[in-house]
Amino acid sequence: MEFMTGVKEKETVDLAAVTAEGMEGRTVKIEGTVHTIRDMGEVAFVILRRRDGLLQCVFEEGVTAFDLKTLKEASSIVAEGTIHKEARAPQGVELRLTGITVLSEPAAPMPLPIAKWKLNTSLDAKLNRRSISLRNVRERAKFRIQEGVVRAFRDFLYSQGFTEIHTPKIGAKGAEGGSNLFRLDYFHRPAVLAQSPQFYKQMMVGVFDRVFETGPVFRAEKHNTKRHLNEYTSLDFEMGYIDSFEDIMAMETGFIQYMLKMLETDYAPELQILGITLPKADKIPAVRFDEAKQLASEKYGHKIRNPYDLEPEEEVLIGRYFKEEYGSDFVFVTHYPSKKRPFYAMDDPADPKFTLSFDLLFDGLEITTGGQRIHDYQMLLDKIAARGMTEEGMEQYLDTFKYGMPPHGGLGIGLERLTMKLVGEDNVRETTLFPRDLSRLEP
Amino acid sequence: MEFMTGVKEKETVDLAAVTAEGMEGRTVKIEGTVHTIRDMGEVAFVILRRRDGLLQCVFEEGVTAFDLKTLKEASSIVAEGTIHKEARAPQGVELRLTGITVLSEPAAPMPLPIAKWKLNTSLDAKLNRRSISLRNVRERAKFRIQEGVVRAFRDFLYSQGFTEIHTPKIGAKGAEGGSNLFRLDYFHRPAVLAQSPQFYKQMMVGVFDRVFETGPVFRAEKHNTKRHLNEYTSLDFEMGYIDSFEDIMAMETGFIQYMLKMLETDYAPELQILGITLPKADKIPAVRFDEAKQLASEKYGHKIRNPYDLEPEEEVLIGRYFKEEYGSDFVFVTHYPSKKRPFYAMDDPADPKFTLSFDLLFDGLEITTGGQRIHDYQMLLDKIAARGMTEEGMEQYLDTFKYGMPPHGGLGIGLERLTMKLVGEDNVRETTLFPRDLSRLEP
């Protein structure tokens, strides 16, 4: 009988073992894909691409036991060689090849110049060949940064006593009303895809006090802008026993600070590849919705057309204002008008035309919507009635409040938008692995 | 201007601060929900339920500045009192109340006896009132264990150089063929919900070498068993540069060992609440499909009806065999017949009727399906042709191989099934927050 006892020691090493101190002169085997071959005649540079970076390998005729002519770019190989210091090589070391073993070969030459430092290809061409274009080192680095964002979100919230939940994406009714929903047939019953985990995360506050979820949400919006996706990853949390809705903004600020620190320490190579200087978030200004509009209007001569809504251009101007006046890339805009927020938003007792809610703008783009929710059963019923809505299909959501709920609130962060701003892109599709928009359903 | 500077210090404390050494005699404020009130006349025990556990609070007439008659179960409160050692209390300490502040009250008495140690309510009743039934301390503990499983999966894979990815759930075509797919209208185009992230994670092996995803998958299967869900959470990974498909089993064994350790250290209170003894996974036997069938058939007198398939009863018997003969709760069953595996499965060169694949059985239930995949472009085209399938809709998946891919493989783990077996339940709905099955679309 054979037994599995855990991760197997490999004969091959990783990049860290090659670049470590004291490895000079050692002979190692390392796997990777042939990123490029630069043939100089008697010597050739074979650049190996691995998950942990690039490694310069040197092929020398008469030394390397392999026929260079038969080596193709995009082949997966095991390279065997001796480690030498070389200041001009990417990692400060190079591998002088003694042998090459080919694991697999491509069937056709590369259709995109992925070995170039910047892949100067149109967004459409990149998206059409996503599994190829991301082999470019800069392109893939964006998604390593994205990993860091999600990882920081979870790690930080675990440390704050949050419990992770997994809520269904197929349901009978949407949390925010009937518009913009993808509809499907669920064993001959009408069903919809979840626009957000809003109802579920609130329902779980009565169980775990603090919960979070990182998962897909679906919006059948007919927008076709650089900021919109029809499926995206939402980072959601909801917390009970808040003293005020500022607790939620404070928690988000804590997350952002934690995230920036984690990116700096654990994702330094990717930050360097992308040439990114991270923003500061030591203190994030918070300003009322009406005041923010006024400030931007006065400074930049923008006419306020609708006092109850924030146009994308106004968001940009508010972002610019707080960058110029306070040096901050982030700004919380608070107290959004009640009529622009969902029924479950808590109105401000001081002026019920406004809510105890906020958006977080990053470089002039909304990346978060959050706020305090109504926790009182009767208040919730009254708000539903006042809006002319029906309780039908919300029975179990409402029961949660009937049987007691602490004061609570939460937020949702758009992962792709946050990543886009962190890496300095201007189209959210650049930081979405496989975007879904009005025209794109594949790959 | 107001500024957010990070998580705010709260006036209230958490349970760890109450139970810590040297806190006796201190006066603290702590928030929670009134779990039960046991009124003994001049003294009453008010049990507070919090995310971190239960706290016994003692109400004394004339000492506690509050009218006990007005306190309702399921109210959210801030309790203020002095910490005293008390061996009979759940945490070894109790809080002698000086005051109570009510934050919110329920509108009706609790419909389920959630304060009982075991909630002896039917599964249907529990699921119909999910946000209430999970307020039972044992019920919610199962989902804390579930959190630990996912957390361990990610932490372990990060440590092994995997990158987390987020792939779309709406697509144009399913990875495993046309059956069992939920269909929807995507802006007047036919679309389906992803049965698995299979194609996408393979496509990303060429980019990141090792990837994983934890997310929902959707299967329109008309099964109505204790093991099946129509939406579940899949823990998927895919890894390149494998020497053989055993590398994948070895990696999964490493994960399970890591998970068991993490549950033991970080989720000890929940293990205790549920009375769980964790299984061992130091060495997991691996046995060929045909051999496993034979062994179970011989020992238990089970007749082999179909040599190419494993019936659920056979899985149970194989699980029993390896428990009895080797003391193992886990067993890898390898080399499944080719005709029972998808087209992308790598056939065994030694006998192409079988594949380099495996299932992992835990206590006689399949919790994982995995294996090596075909990485050679021409081999993949040949297999598609041999099965009479069409390449249509798979162009970008196939292009990934055309332009070079390392040998690779991976697996998918059903989170709810794994949790179910860990906590000793026998219906997967017990370990699903909001199950979706043939009859259940709400809440």
TrEMBL record, chains A, B:
Keyword Cytoplasm appears in the UniProt entry: yes
Domain Aminoacyl-transfer RNA synthetases class-II family profile: 143-443
Record-listed E.C. numbers: 6.1.1.23
Important for tRNA non-discrimination, annotated site positions: P90
Cellular localisation: Cytoplasm
UniProt GO cellular component terms: aminoacyl-tRNA synthetase multienzyme complex; cytosol
Keywords for this protein: Aminoacyl-tRNA synthetase, ATP-binding, Cytoplasm, Ligase, Nucleotide-binding, Protein biosynthesis
SUPFAM superfamilies assigned to the protein according to its UniProt record, in alphabetical order: Class II aaRS and biotin synthetases, Nucleic acid-binding proteins
PROSITE patterns recorded: AA_TRNA_LIGASE_II
Residues reported to bind L-aspartate: E176, R219, T369, R373
GO terms assigned for molecular function: aspartate-tRNA ligase activity; aspartate-tRNA(Asn) ligase activity; ATP binding; catalytic activity, acting on a protein; RNA binding; transferase activity
Complex and partners: Homodimer.
Descriptive protein name: Aspartate--tRNA(Asp/Asn) ligase
Organism: Anaerosacchariphilus hominis
Gene: aspS
